[in-house]
Amino acid sequence: MQIDEENLEAYALGCGLLGGGGGGETRTAVLMAREAIREHGPIEVAGLGDLADDDFLMPCGLLGAPTVSLEKVPARDEGDRLVAAVQELTGRAVAALMCVEIGGSNGLFPLIWAVRRGLPVVDADGAGRAFPQLLQMSMHVTGVPVAPVVLTDERHNVVTLGGEITTHWAERLCRSTAVAFGGRACAAMFTMDAKQARRAAVTGSVSHALSLGELLVRHRTDPFGALSEKPGVVVLARGKIADVVRVTQGGFARGSAIVHGTGDDRGRMIRVEFQNENLVAIEDGQVVATTPTVICLLDDTTAEAVATEELQFGQRVAVVLLPCDDVWHSPEGLEVAGPRAFGYDIDVTRPAGVR
Amino acid sequence: MQIDEENLEAYALGCGLLGGGGGGETRTAVLMAREAIREHGPIEVAGLGDLADDDFLMPCGLLGAPTVSLEKVPARDEGDRLVAAVQELTGRAVAALMCVEIGGSNGLFPLIWAVRRGLPVVDADGAGRAFPQLLQMSMHVTGVPVAPVVLTDERHNVVTLGGEITTHWAERLCRSTAVAFGGRACAAMFTMDAKQARRAAVTGSVSHALSLGELLVRHRTDPFGALSEKPGVVVLARGKIADVVRVTQGGFARGSAIVHGTGDDRGRMIRVEFQNENLVAIEDGQVVATTPTVICLLDDTTAEAVATEELQFGQRVAVVLLPCDDVWHSPEGLEVAGPRAFGYDIDVTRPAGVR
Question: Which of A85, B101, B133, B246 has its CA 20 to 30 Å from the CA of residue B39?
């Protein structure tokens, strides 16, 4: 499989959907990906099964507050520094890159970095969606060591985390480093062999994002009808945004949005709470969906996911729920990615229709 | 020269004086140094002239808010991790350690780390006193690259800073890492050859601290008389502390203390402002001394320097000024360590008596 100029837009749409919104950073990433494809050719996507057992994978992406990326644009060569540092630290040649998470711009940057170096990206990721923290990666849940962690920025600063560092401490140090970098850092972590990745990563993520995006492109006139026919997908309501509260705090974009139903949904009110990604949907005081289910706010006309940092009063949106990978419904997955992991003292909730 | 059980207390007194106060962290360091000497023998202090030109030196110490160390005690093996990481990053064997600054506990920890590894410490440091920031090190002023920087804590976390990092960015990232570690980090930086150090470091710092401390020990009954006979030293006033304001903020202990004169100094009022170290002394609205001159508050009975984090209402103190190394009165030195570098829009001031 390849990501080329033809299917790039569809793929980015799918990443936006799985990330609960792509936003300005995803649009920047699409432009950078198109430029990279024109210069280096299509991005090769390798199935984990096609790699040798000991092929060395570098999961990577951006971390911090995506809000910041609207002004702080990557310099393009961050991936080169990540690969160089990981190879020097481990003494191993990186065979392929992997998205730490498929959702949002993190479904795109690793592809740009890969094609620039002539490497493939694997059809897998560490979440099957997007999550705000390192603890919420399938590699952590399945016991892959987080170190060495490499962080870099557009100024050629390189920070590495090692020693006997835990994922918890890596999260804390990555966050403080991203804040010191100016709010956003490019990072590599959880390096592993392809054999390990077959067990530890969420497989098929790139092709899943592409097929979701292609579905939206094929059904431009009725995207919500097409989406609701997908097994496990629920279009909860359509309406307009009546209020948004948002702060950029400690490297996260936190807040909530209130959607007033319109049309058939007139009279309904849904509140969506987010921390970089949407975490909880509440209707009339009742929790209707929680993380780890993917909660999206899609533009009511284009069906493009609206990033939490771009939500605004008056916007017409649809609240859509997508299923997540089974790893997140395991006890270990729920411990780090269920509502209680984010400070909500509520049980996991998903409507009957969400697989 | 050696630091052994006999002269350790005097040496620590001198470090406290040059650091504008040692405090609880220095007392912890003295206990750890005594333990290390009992276990490994006296600490060897090598003159920079006695080392081969290409002997590789590792300047090191603690950074962050010293206040924190009253509760967050080092684990002893931080130095081993610093040496191991520096050797791995540079591919060179460390021949000797050096104090990043002689003042306060940073005059002691590198000695503990050195003797544990059977290495000498050099009779030099990066300041000739103590300063709160990396920019205020003679190696920065004289153009030694700061990278690689290694930071570690008592939990075996290891963070390294590299790439094309500047001292400014290293300062920013060290600070955020120290805060993430819990307020204090052990660090190595500005690694260099002995030949470079002869030009870039402040030489004779360890022996200077020891001789100052021995002077105080020899004149226990009249320490201020003995101090004021030293060329360039001024005992500004004696009195008691009438007010202290202090916050721990962004990895620094910031604040000010007001000293009301007593005895011959009755009626005088001196305000000392600090940011980890004392920076400005003001009498009746007139600036009488500023950084880079060393401004100390000494216990009026023992002549032991009182750390900024231990100043309290009612304490009897003497305000003492000590000269600093000439490097700090150079244009490059004043740019990073003069009053304007700390946000005070005033010129460098020192009483006529301070050399």
Answer: B101
What fold, for A223-342? CV3147-like (2.40.390)
Residues from B contacting A (CB-CB < 8 Å) are: 81, 85, 152, 155-165, 169, 172-173, 175-177, 179-180
- Residue A193: the pLDDT is 98
CA distances from A255 to A25, A236, A243, A252, A312 (A): 18, 20, 11, 10, 12
What is the CATH code of the structural domain delimited by A2-206?
A: 3.40.1610.10
- The token pair that represents B116 in the structure block: 């544990």
Radius of gyration of chain B (CA): 19
Question: Is the pLDDT score of A275 beyond 90?
Answer: no
Q: Check: CB of residue B114 under 8 Å from CB of residue B120.
A: yes
Would you state the pLDDT for residue A146? 97
Encode burial over A129-139: b for 16+ CB neighbours within 10 A, e otherwise: bbbbbbbbbbb
Q: Is the pLDDT of residue A33 over 90?
A: yes
Residues of A in contact with B176 (CB under 8 A): 176-177, 179-180
The pLDDT confidence band at residue B237, using thresholds 50, 70 and 90, is very high
Residue pointed to by tokens 């920890």: B109
Lowest mean pLDDT among A162-176, A185-199, A242-256: A242-256
pLDDT digits (tens, 9 = 90+) for A211-221: 999 999 999 99
Question: From chain A, which residues contact B within 8 Å (Cβ)?
Answer: 81, 85, 152, 155-165, 169, 172-173, 175-177, 179-180
Q: Best of A157, A166, A179, A186 to disrupt the B interface by mutation (most B CBs within 10 Å)?
A: A157
CA B215 to each of CA A39, A130, B271, B353: distance values in angstroms, whole numbers, following the listed order: 71, 64, 27, 19
Residue B22 pLDDT level (bands cut at 50, 70, 90)? low
What ipTM was assigned to the predicted interfaces of this complex? 0.83
The 3 state secondary structure assigned to A60-115 is EEEEECHHHHHCCCCCCCHHHHHHHHHHHHHCCCCCEEEECCCCHHHHCHHHHHHH
Contact A176 B172 (CB under 8 A): no
**Does residue A20 contact residue A209 with C-beta atoms inside 8 Å?**
no
Q: For chain A, how far is it from start to end, CA to CA, in angstroms?
A: 27
Predicted confidence at residue A251, as pLDDT, reads: 63
pLDDT at A290: 97
Chain A and chain B share a number of CB contacts under 8 A equal to 64
Instruction: State whether residue B92 is helix, strand or coil.
Output: coil
**pLDDT of B316-352, one tens digit each?**
999 999 999 999 999 999 999 999 999 899 999 988 8
Structural contact between residues B232 and B212, judged by C-beta atoms closer than 8 angstroms: no
Q: What is the mean pLDDT of residues A168-183?
A: 95
| Adjacent-strand bridge partners of B2 | B44
> What does the domain layout of chain B look like in residue ranges?
2-206, 223-342
Q: Give the H/E segment covering residue A168.
A: helix A167-181
Distance CA(A109)–CA(A41), nearest Å, equals 16
Q: Evaluate the CA torsion angle B190, A91, A61, A163 in order and state its sign.
A: negative
Tell me the pLDDT of chain A averaged across its residues: 93
- Phi, psi angles (nearest 5°) of residue B247: -130, 145
